[in-house]
Design brief:
single chain, mainly beta, Immunoglobulin-like, 2 domains, 7-stranded mixed beta sheet, 2 helices, 11% helix
Length: 347
């Protein structure tokens, strides 16, 4: 056998050994046991679609007064005859996670012991029941803030063996009645001797699935406005003072008119919020963050100059569930805009 052939055979032999070695390391790094956590009535329970680390994720929804119950199935992984542990516990956490500051703030925690020290030799099931725990705030999954409710199961191990951990998030929602005091909003946009518009919103506090209603009255129109639209804006605010940070998202737009208005013209407004990715308003949650919503008015004149006016509105939840953002309702187009698009298409 030539030296070259012998070298090639040695390489192949080493390659096989290396592959076998890394496969063994990979198997060794696997957890010695599997943990499967399920909630009671999980399949039939309402689900909420949230944005978890950039990807949509469906989680079970619990009301703020519901018990969180379920079972944990634990089994030794294939090939393991016995898994030694110093205890198995289940915990419920309520935690604020702030991406911008890279910090975590624990609001509440409840611990339960499932099993004392022993050996896991066969599959076992344990029940968990969290009836009483702090649910002062709704779950929230935002761009920079996350208010999580989650269950953690831990198999604690001694010595050099690492703990085996399983976590499962769930959503808590709070159904609340609208405040008795629900004043209308009057918003005026004016440019001296050029423009005076009055916006009258019937209410300042709404349920998530209701409609923003009101009227727009043109009292003085000497400026050639060719486009007017409303948008719903969400503003996340974290921190205070020098560490304060905020981020603004435009969730949806609604075209009010396309064309020149005339003096004394009154335009009715009815914009349904269903299908828009809304949550209730959050006010200074544990002094860590707030989430506010605004109705933003934009006027554009013939010279493409823009004029803005903004007013805060407050959202509340009337029933469990989410305004699924996969079912977004596109802004309504006026007859003038539809006619213009048809003419452009024809030309």
């Amino acid at each position: 056998m030539s030296a070259e052939a012998a070298g090639e055979k040695k390489k192949l032999s080493l390659g096989g050994k290396a592959k076998s070695f890394f496969s063994g390391v990979k198997d060794a790094l696997k957890d010695a046991a599997t943990i499967d956590l399920t909630f009671d009535n999980q399949e039939a329970r309402l689900k909420g679609l949230v944005n978890c680390d950039g990807a949509p994720r469906e989680l079970p929804i619990f009301g703020h007064d519901e018990a969180v119950t379920g079972k944990v199935a634990i089994a030794p992984r294939d090939g393991k005859k016995k898994v030694e542990h110093i205890g198995i516990k289940v915990q419920l956490f309520v935690r604020i996670e702030m991406y911008y500051e890279k910090t975590e703030h624990e609001l509440s925690r409840v611990d339960r012991t499932l099993s004392e020290k022993g050996d896991l030799t066969a599959p076992v099931e344990h029940r968990f029941d969290f009836t009483s725990f702090d649910r002062s705030f709704e779950s929230y999954y935002g761009n920079n803030i996350k208010l999580r409710y989650f269950i953690r199961v831990t198999i604690e191990r001694a010595g050099m063996s690492s703990n085996i951990v399983c976590e499962q998030d769930f959503i808590v929602q709070r159904v609340e009645a609208l405040p008795e005091q629900n004043p209308p909003i009057k918003m005026e946009v004016g440019i001296e001797d050029c423009l005076h518009i009055c916006f009258n919103y019937d209410r300042s506090r709404l349920y998530l699935n209701e409609a923003v209603t009101g009227t727009i009255e043109f009292k003085l129109v000497r400026l050639k406005v060719h486009t007017m639209e409303l948008s719903i804006i969400r503003k996340e605010m974290t921190g205070v003072g020098a560490s304060a940070f905020s981020e603004t998202d435009t969730l949806a737009k609604f075209e009010l008119m396309d064309g020149l208005p005339v003096k004394a013209e009154v335009v009715p407004l009815r914009w349904y919020m269903g299908g828009i990715d809304l949550t209730p308003t959050f006010k200074s949650v544990d002094n860590k963050f707030s989430v506010k919503y605004f109705v933003n008015l934009v006027l554009i004149d013939e010279q493409e100059r823009k004029y803005f006016k903004q007013q805060e509105i407050h959202f509340f939840r009337s029933k469990l569930g989410t305004n699924d953002f996969k079912q977004y309702i596109a802004p309504r187009k006026t007859k003038e805009r539809l006619a213009k698009e048809a003419a452009d298409a024809a030309s």
